[in-house]
Structure formats: C-alpha cells, structure tokens
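Handover notes (outgoing to incoming on-call)

Open items:
1. D-serine dehydratase: sequence verified, structure written out, both below. Nothing else pending on this one.
2. Nothing else urgent.
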Amino acid sequence: MADTAEFIKDLCTPAFVVDLDVAKRNAAVMLDRFQKLGVQLRPHMKTHKTLECADIMTGGSRRCIVVSTLAEASFYADHGYDDVLYAYPLPRDKVQRCAELCERMALFHVLLDNGPALQELKRRPLKQGKLWRVWMKLDCDNGRAGVLHSEPAALQLAREISETTGVELYGIYAHCGNTYGCKGREQIEAIAQETTTNLLQFMERLKAIGIQGLKSSIGSTPSCSHPVPDMAMLSEVHPGNYVFYDVQQSLIGSCRLEDVAVRVLTRVIGHYPHRNQLLVDSGWAALSQDGGGCLPTGYAVIQGHPELKLTSMTQEHGRVEPVSGPLDFGQFPLGSMFSLIPYHVVQILQR
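D-serine dehydratase structure tokens:
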C-alpha cells in the first residue's frame, strides 16, 4: 500500500486510475453469477476499450465480446479476440468494413433493425462461402434502437432475414437501458423481468412461424447485477459498465459505492477566498459533465470529503467549494490531491 501511495503521489494530474483488485472482483462476480444460471456472458467493451480489462471480463478466453464501434472491433481482432458482436444498428457506410472483419475472423456478428440494412448485406456477399451472422435488434420498451417487440414488423423482419441468401439470423438482441432510470433493486428487477418476458414471448412467436434455434440476449449493468430467475432461459447477457461501476450505478442500486473501481485524481491549483472556492486541474475534459451536477456533491463524489462539492467545471478546470459554511484553505494547500469518484465512467473514457 505504501508503494501504491508513493506512485499515486507522483502522478501527473488529472489522472484516471483503476483499482485492479476491485475491477477483478466485479468481473469475477458477474462471470460466476451467469455461469450458475447457465447463461453465456458476452461482456461489452465500450466502458474501457482495453486488452487488460477485456481479459479480466472474459476470464482470459478472448472470446465472446460486444463492441459499439468498428475501431473497437478492429482493435480486439488485431489482438487475437474472436466471436465479436458489433452491437450497433448497421450503418450503410460501414458494410464494407464489417465484411472485411467477417472474412478475417472466425466469428464476427452484426446487428440490424431494418430492411434497407439487410439489403446492404445482400448486395455485399461474403467471400469463402461465409454467411453474414446477424442479430436482430428488438425494442422491448427501452425506446432507443430496435423493432418494437409488439409490432408485426418485428416478425416480418425476422422472416426476411432468415430467408435472405448469404445471411444467417443468429439471434435476437434487446437492451434494457430503461433500467438506468431505476432507484433500487425492486425497480431494476421489474424492468429486467419485463424485458426478459417480452423477449422470450417474441422467441415463442418466432417458433410459431417456423424460425427456431436462435440465440436470445438482453443486457444492461443494472439488470445483470440483479438478474431475475427467468433470465436463466436466455442464451446470453451483455452488460459492460460493471467492471468499473460508478456513482450513477450506486444510485440506481446496481452496486455499492465501494464497488466502484475507478477514480480521477486531481490537484488543487488555486485558492480564491473571495468566492470561498478552490480550483482543481480536472474539468469536463477529464471528468465529463454527465449527470449535470445532480449529486449533493456536484459533478462527482470527492472521496473522504463529503463536506466539499465540485460545483462547476470548464474544459480544464473545476471549482470546489464547501457544501455549507466557510472553506478551510489551510486544509487544502496548493498541490494537494483529491480523489474524485465519477458519476458515469463511460463518458470519461469516450474522451
């Protein structure tokens, strides 16, 4: 611990740091949870975009992951990963790059939710007799991408995909991102149950029209942190944020604050007694403005200092002031360091 403290003390700030022990514990808990349910975990890489965390999340298998960009897909392919799902509604301008990944890898999956995207695949047959491996995106009342589960168009699109030459309908994919509006385990479980039920019922409707043997997958960190029993009937789940967690996840009820594996380190660079504020060297470029300063402590939790608030930020600066009362500037000399627990870690790592 002394060596770690010395190392941190010498870091240039702002610095994004990860407690690997906590990240490994989070990953191990999720892997074990779904192994016991008999469900394949296909972790999402967009939170971290690193080989180190990918190896932790896959248990070293280097298989069965989700990405949200083709840059991520290429990065993992370059480093020996396979069975990669590009879980973004297929854009026309990226079909050629997807084809190259399909032809290069043993298993590369694409996702679509409309007929024109399917026609783009048909116009670009794969070499070596390969088939496009397609997941259809289903909207189970999340209200983002996907064909609405209750609409006849969903069954029709599934039929079209299954009947298209050169294409294999591999599975049905749903994201229960509406769990991000939850407060507590009971609400999370209610949405996880609703999403699971909608997806499983849709799978039964597919069987009734002769489409069988498909995979089924739902995902979000909240729903997979508190899975309902019916999720054992799914083929896969695809959470991602859980390897790090963040303050937002603790407020939703996915985790405890002590499960958050990441911090942003920042130093005091200015004293401004006339406005009762400190200035630190982390602004929105280091921390992001996600959450809009909604916490009692502003844009982040300042570890060990519940009396302080990160009240506002510009690109490279943050203003810290007391939640109430006068600030004791002597307690925070220039160069002293704060450890910020971020509201939403994904938005930091997108920068």
